[in-house]
Design goal:
391 residues; Methylamine Dehydrogenase, Chain H; four-stranded antiparallel sheet; 6% helix
Length: 391
């Protein structure tokens, strides 16, 4: 060490300090990744209206000022609302992102139809501007995904393959190392904070399944927890004591009836469901504050089905207070048409909710456990189908 320092002199020290300052600057601003789907809308009866692919985008957004986000990059990558709004994610270092390309639209004679895709895009966030680094071929209809707490692994739920893809992550060098077979279709997979387990939403089975993780190996341990109907997403509180689900209730849409968030006790042996909290009609997006005291469940309220008896022009946010293992709904806040993605800023002081039909993000402010709508909207150039916040 001493001989190297003497050889390099002050130039080495200067270079190290300069590199460190660049690294700090790169991570000083939190980033949000947003997937725009321009292939799917609905008629007044809720039937799909399809458009040819080619206009989707993935946005990288600077949220250093949460009340005035700024788009810093737009990549022409396909994305789909047909899948949980967590098919995008940024790793814990903030240097790489993944996007699961769930569904494509193809020509079938004179008509268009949706078919499962199998691509996972790797985005280099360290590039200026961020760029596509690689495209991986995975399972059919890759959907909800998550990075491990140390960022060295990712799990991708393959809805049409009944499987979980296991990815090794070394910067932008991302490879599929294993595939874990599941009994039926899986919508989302997420890690516990210690990285030793993962929770998988088995959408049509109405269950959350537990995976064991040790020495880079992921194993389905056959522990299955009965949630409410059609669990779409699952999230774990930072302390790892409980997890919450979004129980959609109607196979991916609204039906006029209330639905639930299931509360999972992860400290119990084995883990088990200890409560269900009524939220609203059609919960999809789900996010937990980094402080661990609040969660939000994003409610569709039939906002893409004008002729339905349960139609509401806008969806809403159900605010959930977390006190240990007790979860209580405290507020409902109206947002925009067909809300999907939800995320807290890294400091827990703001919540951004992506509204698919109104092509914007509602910006909500958090004060303790009280949430208010700032009235400000972040417009995006298309329909936000998914989104996640970086570190």
């Amino acid at each position: 060490m001493t001989s190297v320092s003497r050889f390099a002199g002050s130039s080495l020290v200067t270079a190290i300090l300069f590199s460190t300052s660049l690294l700090i600057a790169a991570h000083a601003r939190p980033l949000m990744i947003v997937g725009l789907d321009e292939k799917l809308l609905w008629d007044d009866d809720g039937k799909p209206i399809l458009a040819a692919p080619g206009k989707d985008q993935v946005l990288i957004v600077d949220v250093a000022d949460p009340e005035s986000p700024k788009i810093v990059a737009s990549l022409p990558l396909k994305n789909s609302v047909v899948g949980p709004p967590v098919n995008v994610a940024i790793d814990p270092t903030g240097t790489v992102a993944l996007v699961a390309d769930s569904v494509d639209v193809v020509r079938d004679g004179d008509a268009l139809k949706q078919v499962p895709d199998n691509k996972i895009y790797v985005i280099d966030l360290g590039a200026n501007p961020p760029k596509l680094a690689a495209t991986i071929t995975g399972g059919k209809q890759p959907s909800g995904l998550s990075f491990s707490p140390d960022g060295k692994m990712a799990l991708v739920a393959n809805r049409a393959d009944n499987s979980i893809s296991v990815l090794s992550v070394n910067g932008t060098d991302v490879k599929i190392t294993d595939t874990v077979a599941m009994p039926d279709s899986v919508a989302h997979a997420t890690f516990t904070p210690d990285g030793k387990r993962a929770l998988v939403a088995r959408f049509p089975a109405h269950k959350i399944s537990v995976l064991d993780i040790a020495d880079g190996k992921v194993t389905y341990n056959k522990v299955d927890l009965p949630t409410g109907q059609w669990p779409y997403n699952v999230a774990v509180v930072p302390a790892g004591r409980i997890a919450l689900t979004s129980d959609n209730g109607a196979a991916g849409s609204s039906d006029g009836s209330v639905d639930t968030t299931s509360v999972i006790d992860l400290e119990a042996k084995p883990p088990r469901i200890i409560d269900r909290v009524v939220v609203g009609d059609g919960p999809e997006g789900l996010a937990i504050s980094p402080k661990g005291d609040l969660a939000v469940s994003i409610i569709l309220r039939g906002s893409n089905t004008k002729n339905a008896f349960f139609y509401e022009k806008n969806g809403s946010v159900s605010v959930l207070k977390i006190d240990g293992k007790k979860v209580t709904k405290t507020q409902d806040i109206e947002v925009g048409g067909l809300p999907e993605a939800a995320m807290f800023t890294p400091d827990g002081k703001y919540i951004l909710v992506g509204n698919y039909l109104t092509e914007d993000f509602a910006i909500l402010k958090v004060d303790g456990t009280n949430v208010t709508d700032t009235g400000k909207r972040f417009k995006v150039p298309g329909h936000p189908a998914s989104g996640r916040m970086g570190p």
